[in-house]
């Protein structure tokens, strides 16, 4: 009878692990935060306890080891709450000489010189991991960070960089812990990280800046970093690009949403309000909302027929209607605009059409005329003839289609600029072909720049003629290029 050959299992010892940590750069007297995976190391004689003993031996009696010990469920009890961050972390905090912080979402445990001072009052800090927390205290005292068989996506301290940079996509929450007297305490926590991150994208930057040493301990690929240098590098990256730790996967709804919050914060610094036309994107209200929120937009133009589809979602999503679009003699549209207290925008291109459109004000609506592809001289004549001309919803693409330079020949001069109450970020060629913003003859960058210089506090509507959410996203991308370059 033949027996299957079983290879001899070679277990790592504490001595092996200490030697690997020394080769990586962990020294006696170091203070180190450790994120870990026992499985990544391979077969370890004595399991998690051996790894903990090795870490403590490596830093020596004057050093310190800290591990994250947070849990997902509430309320958090530092005496009993297990952590789901791996066998090493869950074994570490249970040691008699480990001191664990009270923070309900991002507690840590520490063993070594100064452990009590390091974790003290963690729960009183404004955030879970930034100023006045064990994470930043450790960085400020020259601490190191060890990723033992895990990657940057497990690096909690990078959330501190987000919080300290004021990342617009972070949230404020409340959570509860049980104090040492058994009382439940609920606290407010600012700058809480949400869903998906792309921290692994910082790995290359850390290597290039000399922040990180890489090596192996057993089978585990490990990274050892100077925490202060790591934080400086991460903050610099976030300063250059607020979305530096978000992924660019077009199917990642989490990062699309978070990028949208960054854009919304950018728009909040402007005097104008950026809007979109619902029908440019979709006839499905939920798809429209997803598309505009991904671009930081919270206002829409709709028609009277579209309004019922949005009525229930508008309040829930915080989206506002800033204009009702319609045609001449669209009484339903004019009445809705009056009811909502927003302008009623009507395309018109002649003296008679402008005159007819202005009559819709009898329904109580504030009427704005969107110029069609008639030349500017027609509009000048119309406004000269009408004693009570409606305001202008300036559409540069339509003036370009009439063969005119919308900025130099139309907007920059005279009456039409002063009549402009609404601006369409609508670009196109002299031949009448729609283009993305800044890619045609509509001179939209020049007009937008002048409006910003004058503190224009009206609505600027981003147009997308391609139809569909993807075309809208592409148009929005060109809008952001224009805005960032003026």
Number of domains: 2
Rg over CA atoms: 30 Å
Strand content: 15-25%
What low-confidence regions span 5 or more consecutive residues with pLDDT below 50?
Answer: none
Q: In terms of structural class, how would the helical and strand content be classed?
A: alpha/beta
Helix tally equals 21
- Please, what is the average pLDDT? 93
- Give the helix level as a range of percent: 25-40%
The major pleated sheet works out as: 8 strands, parallel, barrel
Query: What's the β-strand tally?
Result: 20
Strand order of the largest sheet: 11-12-13-14-15-16-17-20
Give the overall shape, derived from the CA principal axes. elongated
Distance N terminus to C terminus? 82 Å
Record the SSE blueprint:
Layout: H1 14-24, E1 31-36, H2 38-41, H3 47-59, E2 64-68, E3 76-77, H4 87-92, E4 99-100, E5 108-112, H5 115-119, H6 134-140, E6 144-148, H7 157-165, E7 171-178, E8 184-192, H8 203-208, E9 212-217, E10 220-226, H9 227-240, H10 253-268, E11 273-277, H11 278-281, H12 285-293, E12 299-303, H13 307-317, E13 320-325, H14 331-340, E14 344-348, H15 351-358, E15 367-371, H16 376-385, E16 391-394, H17 396-401, H18 406-411, H19 414-419, E17 420-425, E18 427-428, E19 434-435, H20 444-453, E20 459-462, H21 469-484
Parallel strand pairs: 1-2, 1-6, 3-7, 11-12, 11-20, 12-13, 13-14, 14-15, 15-16, 16-17, 17-20
Antiparallel strand pairs: 2-5, 4-5, 6-10, 7-8, 9-10, 18-19
Helix pairs in contact: 1-3, 7-9, 12-21, 15-16
């Amino acid at each position: 009878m033949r027996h299957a050959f079983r290879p001899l299992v070679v277990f790592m010892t504490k001595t092996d692990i200490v030697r690997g940590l020394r080769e990586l750069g962990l020294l006696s007297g170091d203070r180190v935060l450790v994120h870990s995976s026992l499985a990544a190391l391979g077969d370890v004689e004595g399991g998690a306890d051996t790894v903990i003993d090795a870490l403590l031996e490596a830093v020596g009696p004057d050093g310190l080891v800290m591990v994250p010990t947070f849990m997902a469920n509430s309320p958090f009890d530092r005496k009993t709450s297990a952590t789901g961050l791996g066998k090493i972390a869950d074994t570490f905090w249970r040691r008699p000489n480990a001191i664990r912080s009270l923070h309900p979402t991002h507690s840590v445990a520490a063993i070594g010189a100064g452990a009590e001072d390091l974790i003290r009052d963690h729960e009183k800090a404004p955030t879970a991991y930034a100023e006045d927390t064990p994470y930043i205290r450790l960085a400020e005292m020259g601490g190191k960070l060890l990723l033992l068989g895990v990657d940057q996506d497990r690096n909690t301290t990078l959330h501190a960089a987000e919080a300290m940079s004021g990342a617009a996509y972070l949230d404020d929450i409340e959570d509860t812990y049980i104090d040492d007297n058994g009382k439940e305490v609920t606290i407010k926590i600012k700058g809480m990280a949400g869903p998906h991150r792309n921290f692994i994208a910082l790995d290359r930057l850390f290597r290039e800046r000399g922040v990180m040493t890489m090596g192996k301990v057993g089978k585990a690929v490990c990274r050892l970093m100077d925490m202060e240098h790591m934080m400086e590098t991460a903050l610099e990256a976030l300063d250059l690009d607020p979305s530096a730790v978000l992924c660019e996967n077009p199917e990642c709804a989490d990062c699309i949403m978070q990028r949208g919050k960054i854009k919304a914060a950018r728009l909040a610094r402007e005097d104008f309000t950026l809007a979109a036309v619902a029908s440019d994107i979709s006839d499905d209200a939920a798809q429209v909302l997803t598309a505009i929120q991904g671009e930081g937009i919270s206002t829409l133009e709709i028609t009277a027929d579209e309004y019922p589809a949005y009525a229930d979602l508008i309040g829930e999503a915080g989206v506002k209607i800033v204009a009702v679009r319609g045609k001449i003699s669209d009484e339903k549209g004019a009445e809705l605009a009056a009811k909502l207290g927003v302008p009623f925008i009507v395309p018109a291109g002649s003296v008679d059409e402008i005159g007819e459109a202005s009559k819709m004000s009898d329904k109580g609506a504030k009427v704005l005329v969107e110029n069609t592809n008639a030349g500017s001289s027609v509009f000048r004549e119309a406004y000269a003839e009408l004693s009570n001309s409606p305001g202008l919803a300036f559409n540069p693409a339509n003036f370009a289609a009439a063969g005119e330079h919308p900025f130099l020949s139309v907007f920059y001069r005279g009456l039409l600029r002063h009549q402009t109450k609404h601006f369409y970020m609508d670009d196109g060629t002299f031949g009448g072909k729609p283009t993305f913003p800044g890619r045609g003859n509509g001179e939209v960058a020049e007009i937008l720049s002048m409006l910003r210089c004058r503190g224009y506090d009206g609505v600027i509507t981003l147009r997308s003629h391609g139809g569909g959410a993807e075309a809208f996203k592409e148009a929005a991308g060109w809008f952001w290029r224009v805005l960032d370059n003026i």
